[in-house]
Amino acid sequence: MDKTDQLYVQADFSHQDMSGQYFKNCKFFCCSFKRANLRDTQFVDCSFIER
To answer: Which of 4, 11, 13, 23 has the smallest number of Cβ neighbours within 10 A?
Structure first.
């Protein structure tokens, strides 16, 4: 599933299976990816912002 120009604020992706997803030009603000399955996940021109 492709996601483009999305904004994620304090989203918790912990323990989720995100394998094979494609993110383009997305912004992740204070998000958690702890123990998420990111196999073959692509982040293209994305921003990861911590506090």
So the answer is: 4
Note if the pTM is more than 0.85: yes
| Domain chopping of the chain, boundaries | 2-49
Bridge partners of residue 32, in order along the sequence: 12
User: Tokens in use for 2?
Assistant: 């492709």
What distance in Å separates the CA atoms of residue 44 and residue 51, rounded to the nearest whole number? 22
* Residue 28 burial (C-beta neighbours within 10 Å; 0-12, 13-18, 19+): buried
- In the chain the beta strands, taken as DSSP E runs, fall at 2-4, 7-9, 22-24, 27-29, 42-44, 47-49
Q: In which band, very low, low, confident or very high, does the pLDDT at 25 lie, cut at 50, 70 and 90? A: very high
- Dist CA 24 CA 50 (whole Å): 19
